[in-house]
Amino acid sequence: MLTLTSPVQTWAHRVAAPWKLVALCLATLLLFRLTGPAALALAAAATAALTLSFGATFAVTALKLLRPLWPFVLFVAFWHGWTAEYAQGAAIVLRLLTAVTLANLVTMTTRLSDMLATLTALASPLKRIGLQPRALALAVALTIRFIPIMLLKLNDIRESWRARSARRPGWRVLVPALMAAIDDADRVAEALRARGGAG
């Protein structure tokens, strides 16, 4: 639960976390500078090629992490199809998928300890105003780790609902999703306490 780092070792695992985070920031800025679907499709193809360069097993896992995005993709596609703004809709979808894939690649190839060390160093100036850099870094790192996990669990809960009922799940999945989040938070808290806390 504390890490999404892929057990499949790749060359990206050997790249220092700060460089990967800088590359992710620059790539994301570039994505938002690109406006045309053709340029964004090229960026998406380059991201897919990068993912495939890590091997088939790694690529399949990376693809599974994109499953929670399909409701957003469907909504954007429907809305821009309805308004006949096809190019703009394609650009939004391509930008979303590419940005999330790149973020997942950083998460999958970076150990939690390396991420914590990098974020702690970045937050060190905040110590002057009374904030604890390590606690802040831990909060950010856990948020990064938990978001894809919770999205996957929410998707699993929806699938379980559909297997048992013909009705749309809608808001009914919120309570079990919330309970799952609380349960995961308790387990992480216990793991942190067993390892000496966040200090």
Tell me what the structure shows:
This protein starts with 16 loop residues before the first helix and ends in a 5-residue tail after the last helix. Helix 2 packs parallel to helix 5, helix 4 runs antiparallel to helix 5 and helix 7 (133-164) packs antiparallel against helix 8 (174-194). It folds into 2 domains: 1-110, no CATH class; 134-199, no CATH class. The chain contains 8 helices and no strands. The protein is mainly alpha-helical. It is globular and about 55 Å long.
SSE arrangement:
Layout: H1 17-33, H2 37-52, H3 56-64, H4 70-82, H5 86-108, H6 112-123, H7 133-164, H8 174-194
Descriptive keywords:
199 residues
Q: What would you call the shape?
A: globular
Question: Helix and strand succession?
Answer: HHHHHHHH
* Helical content (DSSP H or I, runs of 4+): over 70%
Number of helices: 8
In round numbers, the mean pLDDT is: 81
Number of strands: 0
Distance N to C terminus:
20 Å
What is the SS-derived class? Answer: mainly alpha
Strand content: under 5%
How would you concisely characterize the structure shown here?
72% of the residues lie in helices and 0% in strands.
